[in-house]
Amino acid sequence: MSSGPPQSPAVAKTEVTVEGECPLLAATFAYWDNILGPRVRHIWAPRCEQPLLLSDGEVTFLANHTLNGEILRSAECGAVDVKFFVLAEKGVIIVSLIFDGELKGDKNTCALSIILPQTELAFYLPLHTVCVERLKHIIRKGRIWMQKGYNIISVLTSEIVPIMELLSSMKTHSVPEDIDIKDTILNDDDIGDSCHEDFLHKAISSHLQTCGCSMVVGSNSDKVNKIVRTLCLFLTPAERKCSRLCKADSSFKYDTGLFVQGLLKDSMGSFVLPFRQVLYSPYPTTHIDVDINTVKQMPPCHEHTYNQRRYMRSELSALWKAASEEDIAPDTVIHTDEFFTPDLNIFQDVMHRDTLVKSFLDEVFMLKPGLNLRSTYLAQFLLILHRKALTLLKYIEDETQKGKKPFRSLRSLKTDLDLMVEGDLNIIMALAEKLRAGLHSFVFGKPFYTSVHERDVLMSF
Questions:
Q1: In Å, how far from its chain's centre is CA 322?
Q2: Is the pLDDT assigned to residue 447 strictly greater than 80?
Q3: Which of 147, 173, 199 marks a domain boundary?
């Protein structure tokens, strides 16, 4: 007779076909069994060009590791705790999201984890927030599915697979931290060499007004990537690592959370944007079409956040009301809330022009190309924008006694900070939003809610 411990039943496994190199070793869903302790329910492993470095047994061991000590976890109902493990002895890092859910009628502590080699730490860290936010929302949906007694694995798979594809694409097509200005439009002899003057001005201005988030769509990959690199000049090195160039032979899917991404049109000259993924981006987005030289943008941050949260609630409500697992398709546009119908035409023309970007472009093309002068001038321009954003934050802090009073003097702010032009104010507000999240809602929030309610009432007549 064998004296060893009894063998646990085989863990269900899904192999995901991923093109190219996938830095992810595996993803796991585990739960705490009150009798047997930590148990792995499912493993997702990429099937790609590189062999898997971990066996199923090692993956199970690592998944168990994330749940040990969670038996006495005390957290608010619905809370998702994010834990980051670096196991040097195994040469891996584990990002684990701990949450409570119901399995087989019992309340259990669960963990959804992704496992990467320790050598990929520098690659993964800039993308950590992107991955975690997407996994958090799929967990919200999964908890409802568990409560109703349905199979949570199918729900989790709908986000685990795209994250594997995202990390794989970022491994080969991410924008480098340092961009040579020679690879961008700002190195041209004249602003009209690569694109029309008004188009470039609109693209950069709207890009800054939407917190540095843009998608560039076109039929020519070289032209798309040149615009992508140009826009990334206005981002920080960390934000560039969360941006992606377009692929020459086939298009990537749109990915929520990236700052700038290039997308290639199909053979028919079209590209279908998934409404839900675009709305779930942390910031509003600029849509740039390099084929027809058009620039459109989403509403500002406070309106974007308002619409996003309303839609998120509607989606979860529709999931709760679903009578079966087949009732809700992954990318269905939800129309369940009678007081909130999403506007599918979320991209509008750029309404507000600016003087900041216009003056910068007029002056930068006066400098001789091929030297470091334009790079230096760009750095100076970005420093000025950053200082203006810090000044705006300090101004609002003083006027509101650090948030104790509502902000009522927008006209005075525009006059005192020389931001009378709406486009200039939008650019500085967007930069300040990234420094202090929630600024837009604090300054503009209440009037916006009122206007939305008034619009809804008027439309009901």
A1: 27
A2: no
A3: 173
In this prediction, what percent of the chain has a pLDDT beyond 90?
A: 42
Instruction: Name the burial class of residue 51, with classes exposed (0-12), middle (13-18) and buried (19+) by CB atoms within 10 angstroms of its CB.
Output: exposed
The single-letter DSSP state of residue 318 is: H
Confidence of residue 268 (pLDDT cuts 50, 70, 90): confident
Instruction: Give pLDDT tens digits for 45-81.
Output: 888 665 556 777 788 787 777 887 666 666 667 788 8
CA 92 – CA 108 distance, rounded (Å) = 26
In this predicted structure, the answer to whether residue 2 has a pLDDT above a threshold of 60 is: no
**Residue 91, both tokens:** 């040469």
The sheet with strand 92-103 has its strands ordered as 12-17, 37-47, 26-33, 106-117, 92-103, 81-87
Does residue 92 contact residue 62 with C-beta atoms inside 8 Å? Answer: yes
**Phi/psi zone of residue 342: left (φ > 0), alpha (ψ -120 to 50 degrees), beta?**
beta
Give dist(CA 409, CA 403) in Å, integer. Answer: 14
**Concatenated DSSP letters of 210-266:** TTT-EEEEES-HHHHHHHHHHHHTTS-HHHHTT-BPPPSSSPPPP-TT-SEEEEE--
454 backbone dihedrals φ, ψ, rounded to 5°: -60, -45
Q: Residue 448 pLDDT > 80, yes or no?
A: no
Structure tokens at 215: 């998608």
445 within some domain: yes
What is this structure's pTM? 0.88
- Range of 454's domain? 351-459
| Token couple for 51 | 């062999």
Q: CB–CB of 285/297 below 8 Å?
A: yes
In this predicted model, which residue has the larger pLDDT, 68 or 9?
68
> Does any domain span residue 346?
no
CA 77 to chain CA centroid, nearest Å? 25
Q: Provide the pLDDT confidence category of residue 331 given band limits of 50, 70 and 90.
A: low
Q: Is the dihedral of CA 302, 305, 311, 317 positive or negative?
A: negative
Give domain status of residue 149, yes or no: yes
Q: How many residues does the chain have?
A: 461
In a domain, 307, yes or no: no
pLDDT recorded at residue 6: 39
Q: Which of 138, 173, 208 is the C-terminal boundary of a domain?
A: 173
Number of domains in the chain: 2
Return d(Cα 379, Cα 352) in angstroms, integer: 24
Residue whose pair of structure tokens reads 């040579």 in the numeric block: 180
SS (H, E, C) 335-380: CCCCCCCCCCCCCEECCCCCCHHHHHHHHHCCCCCCCCHHHHHHHH
